[in-house]
Amino acid sequence: MVPFAGYEMPVQYRSILDEHRTVRSAVGLFDLSHMGEVLVSGPEALAFARYSLVSEPGALEPGQAQYSMLCTDDGGVIDDLIVYRTAEGYLLVCNASNRDTVIDHLGVLAGRGDFDAAIADRSDRTALIAPQGPRARELLAKVSDLPLDDLGYYRSVRGRVAGVDCLVARTGYTGEDGFELFCDARQATSLWTALRDAGEPMGLKPCGLGSRDTLRLEAGMPLYGNELDREHNPFEANLGRVVKLEKGEFIGRAALAAIQQTGPRRRLVGLVMRDSAIARRGYPVHVDGRPVGVVTSGTASPSLNERIAMAYIPAERARIGDELEVVVRERACRAEQVKLPFYRRSR
Amino acid sequence: MSSTSVPAELRYSKEHEWVRDEDGRATIGITSYAADELGDIVFVELPDVGARLTQFAAFGVVESVKAVSDLFAPLSGEVVEVNEALRTQPELLNQDSYGEGWIARVSIGNPSELDQLLDADAYHELTGQP
Q1: Least CB-CB distance to A214: which of B43, B65, B68?
Q2: Which candidate in A12, A28, A106, A296 could, as Cys together with A207 as Cys, close a disulfide (CB 3.0–4.6 Å)?
Q3: CB under 8 Å to A184, separation ≥6 — which residues?
Q4: CATH code at A2-34+125-218
Q5: Interface predicted TM-score (ipTM) of this complex, two decimals
Q6: Could you tell me the pTM of the whole model?
């Protein structure tokens, strides 16, 4: 167990590799109750969300969700999150480590724009349990009557799962099919136990933070604090598609419009090691012996039998197939730029 | 999962390496306690044959999915052989840390260094294993 954003979290229950492979082949169960849930509601909830986020929440019908970000006036990323349009308003599911920052930031913005919107931190009362993997749908069908075939990717619906009232979303952070189930924290144990018991015959295993990290890295998904922070903007992180400049005024718009115009200075790239070494976060990236960038995340990929990493390098050096060097314990090790994601599930 | 038992015939360092004394040569590795603590081992950086190890100094690296850890030589000497199998099967360190997961064979430079290592009972006590 490790302390994580005020929670005690398991890095692994038994084995990171085993948990990782379980999510790729069957179904893994994650307790993500540490995530932040912030509800924006009120008559001007949409106007406020459009002003605060870089995406266009105005495009969301009830039951739809989108990936989004909060940026600074300079275009740096304050947090990345998923915004769900629910019957109550706009539910922002943010990183646990950024929860207080997000609440404070939204509070300042609401005052600045004089919006008639309420911002409520629902994090402590909300548990989040996520069955993820190719058999997640089958698992959910065993314990609920929800019309899962009608629930597309990035869609959500309210309903009962194992007798517990949930917001059931088809979202995840693993690169597999899967669900995220938000429920009242007091019913989390009962939901977890029911899913675990129903899933065990399918090979379900509880999964910790370690496999969550290797799964998202294979899927090419950024982790706040590694690939995303206030020093990097969405265009550098290959997330320019999320930024909707045409929607009108929003926080960070001028800076982001300028970056889009000129193109980003740096780019996040995928690397596969060609020499025998694992690139890790913080290791320098060199070209011809000179430092040009830095590794943001790296590991031995459990699914691909490769050693993979992501790194920021100057935009003009980002080209698939080109080689770079990652300095591992003072040794320059060859790495090839590859297309992201590293892993894509077969559908 | 590897066994947590501590073989009686080996010597141990406080850094969780073991030594099997074989008449002037020694086989060295990491203990199953260390392997369990590290978790799934996915990479081993072995010393070169001919490298000279210094007792209690770093001589290689093991990496689990999450962490990078130095290997510390339990005694001084010259590396005469390394376990090449670990390059492709680092998981041997988890599966059989006292057998197939051996790391290197070393010609013992100074036999008296063995006296500075722990016996099985003392190592057992160090790790607080039941």
Answers
A1: B65
A2: A28
A3: A125, A126, A127, A164, A165
A4: 3.30.1360.120
A5: 0.89
A6: 0.95
